[in-house]
């Protein structure tokens, strides 16, 4: 019943480097067929004709509604977004920039900001060196929220500017805003300390802002170079379709949003909204909304112009997911896009983005439903309607999965399924945090208020894993039709495989201690 699985793989920040988006007619046909399959299944399920136990059936409907909304949002975006070509004026400005001698470019044109907060020096060095060596004359400024004298020395050795503010108020956004008070340029780029930019970054992005005075920022993909690891490789694959298709399609709706790094801003646009948004850990998407509300435009440039590092441990993965989920859900519940001064297209694009983080509820319910049958005998679908339900469900799910495979251009690897379906506790924790106002934080070992052990990091997954193992014999001994028992056992086995594959990554023995090297980088050590 994991109908959210293709949707999860489609969404959450590229394995290719496209220069433009070209959608063949077959894409539209496949999406239309997939939507028809969804409608056919939904019309049967929500009619209530197959309802079994009321609670289990309600849980199934809730999970399916969340999954369908996510899938429909993706499909509609891709279906109605027209292909867009780079304006000729952008190419003209790019050619002009390439011909201008560096000495003729003033220091007041571009600053490249690298906010840091205690990351390893080797990581910072790679990024700062690459930022310093970008084509087109610019200022490179390290914004140190870690107050580390070693970072100061590193900056001096590399010949770049160094600033610290003496406080960590408002986190990354506060750090950048404090830096902007002391760095006055017409444009500024931001690179996280683990995002190593390509020399051509400014040559590729700056022409868009020069050609369009109403353009607030140019966003480029987050591309992960450390794809050899189980978790890091899975994270890279999950983001592939988002950056390859979805974020690019948002250009058609002027709804491409900032992801916090690998981005070039117009200073006057940021000044016009009072700086980067500081009252959220997801300052990037909040800032994007404020800019779009102010009538500014944005563009996503689908070229890999920086290489970063994906999470390599369960702890770092869960922290990342919790931060992203809390930011998205804050937008949904505290700044509902439908109530903002946005165009209709922008409203539903932002709404769709924030709704994604409700997927944690759906995934949890999909894990729970087979357990309700195994332990309590609750069937979401009546026994006599089970076969009819399968005839509707299989075409829908088959088309949803095929659409994902088609857009990816290959079959997703197992690790992508595992990660997409196993981070649900972080999304649920973020939802609780937003709705209750409790300032939870996700540490290396889970949602905590003090230090715990490795097990705590994956405690929800371990509990579900054990219950699923125990549920198999209970299902087999039930006096129910064989077909129904086979379906439930198959679901339990799939859930067990997912949960086991993920939980084993939380323990040191299962995690490779070596770090995959990114092209053009040195080994990272701490």
How are the elements arranged and paired?
Blueprint: H1 5-11, H2 25-45, H3 54-80, H4 88-99, E1 110-116, H5 121-132, E2 139-144, H6 149-158, E3 161-163, H7 171-180, E4 187-190, E5 196-197, H8 201-211, E6 215-219, E7 223-224, H9 230-249, E8 263-266, H10 267-272, H11 283-293, E9 297-300, E10 306-308, H12 314-334, H13 344-355, H14 359-376, H15 386-408, H16 414-422, H17 424-436, E11 442-443, E12 446-447, H18 454-457, H19 459-476, H20 482-503
Describe this structure in words.
The relative contact order is 0.14. Mean pLDDT is 87; it is low at 3-21, 443-453 and 510-526. Helices cover 55% and strands 8% of the residues. Helix 4 (88-99) crosses helix 8. It has helices at 5-11, 25-45, 54-80, 88-99, 121-132, 149-158, 171-180, 201-211, 230-249, 267-272, 283-293, 314-334, 344-355, 359-376, 386-408, 414-422, 424-436, 454-457, 459-476, 482-503, and strands spanning 110-116, 139-144, 161-163, 187-190, 196-197, 215-219, 223-224, 263-266, 297-300, 306-308, 442-443, 446-447. The protein is built from 20 helices and twelve strands. Strand 2 (139-144), helix 6 and strand 3 (161-163) form a beta-alpha-beta unit. The longest helix has 27 residues, at 54-80. It is α/β, with parallel strands linked by helices and 526 residues long. The chain has a domain at 88-311: Spore Coat Polysaccharide Biosynthesis Protein SpsA, Chain A (Alpha-Beta Complex). The strands form three sheets. The chain has a seven-stranded mixed beta sheet, with helices on both faces. Strands 5-10-7 form a three-stranded mixed beta sheet.
